[in-house]
Design goal:
Elements (H helix, E strand, L loop, with lengths): L20 E14 L2 E15 L4 E5 L6 H9 L6 E10 L13 H7 L4 E4 L13 H9 L7 H14 L16 H13 L5 E5 L7 H18 L2 E5 L3 H7 L2 E6 L2 E7 H6 L4 H8 L48 E4 L2 E3 L2 H4 L5
Parallel strand pairs: 3-7, 3-8, 5-6, 6-7
Antiparallel strand pairs: 1-2, 1-4, 8-9, 9-11, 10-11
Helix pairs in contact: 5-6
Length: about 350
């Protein structure tokens, strides 16, 4: 296993005090226009949370809850019709801009892959199908790693060994590798510069359970080795139980509960969180699971008040009129629910 690669520029790490990421009242909407009428799909609507240094923060929720839109906004991958209409995103290594999307291009180039990296949902979204894997490492990592070409090659080979890949894969095209090998290659690409912060968006969705466990173990092992913080996104609650330290639950573009992962699984407070936990299969339990009634709301025309209230078994009259605040009910445990936090009107 080779030594950690030397950095060409900006070798400073962020200060150890404070969170590495602070998101405040973030609002990111898709603007659509049909027949001259503008409509806004409120995919991310008023989200506030912090991610601490050295932790794996999980983001859970059903499809179309806004998870991928949130992480794309945090990563600065914003293209029309997506717009940031409010709020701030502050990284410890990029203070003062309020988000990567507001930073100058030179700062973005300095930050990406060195301080912030992204493991995407599909490996073929990262790897160029007409370029050998070696060239992808050159494109991604060479601007941030000093030394000769030989030293750079040695660093790549050593890092590939961390994810159980042989040096021979460098000469391969992506289609010549299995799905698991491609995903391990993308993990190697995302971590070779030892970034401070890693976003992993559904990185194991297309893998079978055996390869999935192997890939998750690699992510955890490399994260501990280099001390990165990770924002890990998946709808699979079992993966969160296995990997994450803290967990945020999203529903219809909003964060509805946040706590440590053991606390969420042992004591879920929000009715939606309870449903997610109770839907997990258990060995020896043959009880029939009941699906959640109704359907997720249309985020172009969401219901007033709490967006979960049309499907909620605990809904009260106030839930259809007011948006519940995220209130800390216990140290480190926040929930947005009138029925739980006692803030509803009689």
């Amino acid at each position: 296993m080779s030594a950690a690669p030397a950095l060409a520029t900006d070798t400073r790490r962020p200060d150890s005090a404070g969170p590495i990421l602070s998101v405040r009242d973030l609002q990111a909407h898709f603007r659509t226009s049909h027949f001259g009428i503008n409509r806004y799909v409120r995919a991310v609507d008023g989200i506030t949370f912090d991610i601490r240094r050295g932790e794996i923060y999980g983001l859970a929720g059903e499809s179309s809850s806004g998870k991928t839109t949130l992480v794309k906004t945090i990563a600065g991958a914003i293209k029309p019709p997506l717009e940031v209409v409010g709020g701030t995103i502050e990284f410890a290594f990029l203070p003062g801009y309020g988000g990567l999307h507001r930073a100058p291009p030179a700062e973005v180039a300095r930050i990406r892959w060195r301080h912030l990296s992204y493991i995407m949902q599909g490996s073929m979204n990262v790897l160029n199908p007409v370029r050998r894997l070696r060239q992808s490492f050159v494109d991604f990592a060479r601007p941030h790693i000093a030394g000769s070409e030989r030293e750079f090659e040695t660093s790549i080979i050593g890092h590939l060994a961390r994810v159980n890949l042989d040096a021979s894969v460098l000469a391969a095209y992506p289609h010549e590798l299995s799905g698991g090998m491609r995903q391990r290659a993308t993990i190697a690409l995302a971590t070779i510069c030892r970034p401070d912060f890693i976003i992993a968006d559904e990185p194991t969705t297309a893998l079978d359970v055996v390869v999935q466990k192997e890939v998750l173990g690699m992510i955890r092992g490399i994260q501990r080795e280099i001390g990165s913080s990770v924002l890990f996104v998946t709808h699979d609650m079992g993966v969160h139980a296995y990997l994450t330290d803290r967990l945020g639950i999203m529903y219809a573009g909003r964060l509805v509960e946040e706590a440590t992962t053991p606390e969420i699984f042992q004591n879920p407070l929000h009715p939606y969180s309870r449903h997610l936990i109770s839907s997990l299969p258990r060995i020896g339990d043959d009880m029939q699971r009941k699906g959640l009634e109704g359907a997720p709301p249309n985020l172009a025309d969401p219901p007033p008040g709490c967006r979960f209230h049309p499907r909620c078994p605990l809904a009260m009259e106030v839930c259809s009129r007011r948006v519940p605040d995220m209130i800390e009910t216990a140290p480190g445990h926040r929930v947005a629910c009138f029925a739980v936090n006692g803030s509803g009107e009689p």
